[in-house]
Design brief:
single chain; 179 residues; alpha/beta; Alpha/beta knot
Length: 179
């Protein structure tokens, strides 16, 4: 076994990536306070070919050196936009026939390991503030709350880890639906 070099990874260019088909999945960052978390989620969105990334509320926007440090250029490859109001954005996406889910611990969870996305439906995933979670005003607007089963004592994951786990799980399930 040997590690692959950058050349052996056959990375495509930013313009080629932008022209590639994406998964029918958008990611919404609502009031994410850490620019390092924002950059990391840009990188995750690039890695999994997420269709679009929405930055809402107090979430910082590129260009910024703290975002750039963890995004490693993904702010150039990932389609993104800023929306001041996450509530208005969710209402608009619902009108566009998206299924919208928060990643949150609630009294009516949809456990990620049991959740199956509906075939041929676009999904929007909302990740909330690192301390306070998602905006309470979203609860009556969304189609459900995805929860990552956790077995330790903390029952808390960093927002970037939670985002990566949810996106990976959904992409795997979407890929299986196309077979």
């Amino acid at each position: 076994m040997k590690k692959l070099s950058m050349e052996q990874l056959n990375r495509i260019s930013v313009s080629e990536f932008q022209d590639e088909a994406k998964f029918p999945l958008v990611l919404i960052l609502d009031d994410i306070r850490s620019m390092n978390n924002v950059g990391s989620l840009f990188r995750t969105a690039d890695a999994f070919a997420v269709e679009h990334l929405y930055l809402c509320g107090i979430t910082a926007q590129p260009p910024h050196k703290e975002i750039h440090k963890t995004a490693l250029g993904a702010t150039e490859s990932v389609s993104w936009s800023y929306e001041k109001s996450v509530v208005d954005l969710v209402k608009r996406l619902k009108e566009e026939q998206f299924l919208v889910y928060i990643v949150e611990q609630t009294d009516t969870p949809l456990y990620l390991n049991h959740f199956e996305p509906k075939k041929d439906k676009k999904i929007a995933i909302i990740l909330g503030n690192e301390v306070f979670g998602v905006n309470d005003a979203l609860l009556p607007l969304v189609d459900g709350a995805l929860e990552i089963p956790q077995y330790g004592t903390k029952h808390s994951l960093n927002v970037t880890i939670a985002g990566g786990v949810v996106i990976w799980s959904l992409i795997q399930k979407m890929e299986r639906q196309t077979v």
